[in-house]
Amino acid sequence: MDSGQVLSHYNDKKILITGGAGCIGSNLVRTLLSVDPAKITVLDDFSASFPWNLPKHPLLQVIEGSVLDEQKLKQVFYENPDFVIHLAAHFANQNSIDHPETDLMVNGLGLLRVLEYSRLMEPKRVIFAGSGCSVYGSHAEIPFKEGTVSLTLDTPYQIHKLLGELYCNHYHEIFGLPTVIGRFFNVYGPGEVPGQYRNVIPVFMWLAMHDRPLPVMGKGEETRDFAYVDDIVDGILRMGVIDGAVGEAMNLASGTETSVRSLADLVIEITGSKGGWIQKPKRDWDRSNRRLASIEKAKRILGYNPKKDFKEGLVTVYNWLETNRENVVESLGPSAGLW
Ligand SMILES: NC(=O)c1ccc[n+]([C@@H]2O[C@H](COP(=O)([O-])OP(=O)(O)OC[C@H]3O[C@@H](n4cnc5c(N)ncnc54)[C@H](O)[C@@H]3O)[C@@H](O)[C@H]2O)c1
Fold first, then answer.
1. Closest ligand 1 atom to Cα of 187
2. Contact by Cβ (8 Å): 245, 6
3. If exposure means fewest CB atoms within 10 Å of the residue's CB, which of 66, 77, 175, 248 is most exposed?
4. What spacing in Å lies between the alpha carbon of 157 and ligand 1's midpoint?
5. Taking the complete model, does pTM exceed 0.85, yes or no?
6. Does the C-beta of 187 come closer than 6 Å to ligand 1?
7. Which CATH number is correct for 3-187+226-252, 2.40.37.20, 3.40.50.720, 1.10.230.10, 3.30.420.10?
8. 21 CB less than 6 Å from ligand 1?
9. pLDDT digits (tens, 9 = 90+) for 249-300
């Protein structure tokens, strides 16, 4: 199935997206609005995103509230969504080290409540945003394949992402809920405002745009699998409509490995930054030297085929930050993110 055929399955459908104002969610909303859904409902508490990140559109309903709030959940599930895409999360590793209980509440209990309401309302599909950067641990064989997960994880975020998978499997096995787990790797793209707890790409880009040195943790030889958000959105939409995906967990990534130092070099080249980069000690919990996903399973089951060239993707992030500079500065407050 090509991407257009996949998208056409969402015509006339009601789609609930929790955490839909974030990086992945806002791009997913825009893609879905390019067809004719009956309605898209975003439930987001804006704890890590901003309303300006979503378009204004008659088919888009934005409800401000938490996935922990039963009243809000009743409100959004009462509409009987065809698809539930659960992206809301307390994000990510360092944030969970600093706030482990909030992480458990949002990523554990929040998901559990979404699954309970889904069981009552019986949507066609429930997609859970899992994390391939989490469940394989720090010492898995490269490339990471779906068959094995680690029971020795480094942060509460990683633990709760694994817990989320266990809950999804439980609801699928015991109640027949049609769940699918996407194990995303380092997702980047327009729509992510840099910040203390945010991913390396928007943070590097923003610092470079201000001629600040880029803090490269460790030797810089550490690698990550950076996945462009449009490719992830395409994978999510496929998970919603391809029957063979139900009950499965699949990596969604680029299937390529990039060192953090070469990322820093590219960001400096794109922005023309005079700040260069500096070496910083690794964070205690960060024991992952290499990350590379196998995307064979997603290719086979979903027809997933990530397309974005890395440098092109980085230029898109740069352009988005330039275009939205005022909103970003206002959202970041007095420090303007220049920690
Ligand atoms: N971006 C990545 O690299 C990556 C990698 C692996 C997995 N994931 C997962 O994918 C999902 C989406 O990621 P993202 O990059 O868009 O993150 P994001 O932080 O940009 O989006 C998450 C959204 O959830 C909202 N949210 C937080 N707590 C909430 C709550 N209690 N109730 C309702 N909304 C709440 C935030 O305000 C934000 O808009 C998350 O579940 C994340 O853990 C992301």
1. 3
2. no
3. 175
4. 11
5. yes
6. yes
7. 3.40.50.720
8. yes
9. 999 999 999 999 999 999 999 999 999 999 999 999 999 899 999 999 999 9
